[in-house]
Amino acid sequence: MIFKKHHKVKFLILGAGPSGLSLAHALLSLGHNTSDIVLLEKEMVPGGLCRSEIIDNAPLDIGGGHFLEANNKKALNFLFKFMPEDEWQLFDRISKIQIHGMEIDHPLEANLWQLPRHLQIGYLESIAQAGCVVNKPHPHSFSEWVIWKFGVDIANQYLLPYNRKIFSMDLSQLGTYWLHKLPNVSFKDTLLSCLESRPTGQLSAHGRFFYPKKYGYGEVWRRMGGQLGDMLHLNCPIKTIDPVKRVVNNKWSASYIINTIPWTLWTSYCNMPLEIQKLIYQLKNVSINVDYVPQTLQNKSHWIYNPDESIAHHRLLLRSNFTNSGRGYWTETNSNRSHPTTGQRFTNEFAYPVNTLDKPKAIRGILEWASNHQIIGLGRWGKWEHMNSDVAVSEALDLASKLSGL
C-alpha cells in the first residue's frame, strides 16, 4: 500500500470570504510564516458573498448589498491597509421603505411623521399598547416578539410581511435571541418624532458607510486574496475532510482547521457522529437571487425595502447612487419567491443563516464537537450568524490573536 504524503500546515482555512481572508492576513501580521497558512476557496475569485462582477460596464455585488460600516474603526484600519481610505467614498445612508403607496425613510418607527396624520395616529396607538410598553412578559418566538416590541401596526404592515418575504417560512420558527440588532423603540420617542416632524431614537447599522469609488465592494477582498500568493488556492472545492486527523482533500494536514464555510456541507465531506449530523440538519439557510435591472430610477435612495407580499423582491439596491459609473439597480429576492427571468441573475444558495428557535443549541453542540478536534468555526457560516462584513473582520482579528497565543 502506498501512503500519500500530506502537506503539513499550522492553519488550514476553509473559505476565502471576508473572515478567511482577514484571518490569514492577521496571522501573517502577527509573525506567522507563509508556510504556516493555506486557504482553500471553491470559486475562481476570493470574496465569498462580497464578490463583485462588472455588469453593464459597472460593478455589481453578486452576493447582494454589502457595505463597509463607517463606525467600526478596528475593521476600517485593517481594511484600509489593502485598499486605502482615499479609494473609498463615505455616504450618509439614504434608505427608504415603500409602504402605503409612499416612500418613508428607514427605520419606520423613527419616521412615522412622514405619513399622513391619520396613519400616524393609528401607529402611535398601537405602539402605546405594545407589550414592552405596558410591561407584558417577553415572548420567545419572533412573530410574537415583533408585535410585543413594535405594536400591531408596524408588525403587520411592515416587519412581519417583510420578514416572511426574506425567509419564506413560518416566522414562529424563528427565535428572538438575535434581535439585539434592531434599534430600540419607545412610545415617547415616536410621539416626539411625530410632534416635531423629525426622526428620533436609535438608528440601525450602516447609518454611514463606505463604498469604493471606482470598484464594487468585492475589490478589497480581491486585493487581499492577491496578496496571499501561493497560500490561497482558488478553484479548489472541498471534497473530503478527516476531522480526526484534520486532513482535507487527502492533501493538506493541519494543526488547526478554521471553518468559514456552511456546516451543512460537511455531512458530504466527512464521517461524523450521528448526533452531530442531527444537529447540522437542524441548521437552516436562505437562498437569495440577485437580479440586475438596467433601468435607472429617479430616486436618491441607496436601497429600498418593500414589505408588499404581492411583489417578489424584498429590497432594491440603486447602484447608480453609490457607484460612480453605474446605472440601473438590482433586486434581492428569496429564491423560493423569484419569478423566471431572461435578465442577469446571480443565485446565492447560502445568503442568510436562519435564526431558528433550536439554532443556538445546535450550533453550540457543533462547535463543541469541532473544538475537540481543533476545528474552529468563524464568520457568518462558521458561527451561523448573520453578521456584516466588518463584524466578520473584527472577529477574525480577535481569533488570530487567540491562535497566536496557543
From TrEMBL:
Q: Give the protein name, as stated in the record.
A: Amine oxidoreductase
- Source organism of this protein record: Polynucleobacter tropicus
Q: Name one GO molecular function term.
A: UDP-galactopyranose mutase activity
Supply the source organism's classification: Bacteria, Pseudomonadati, Pseudomonadota, Betaproteobacteria, Burkholderiales
**Among the entry's GO cellular component annotations, what is one?**
cytosol
One Pfam family this sequence matches: NAD_binding_8
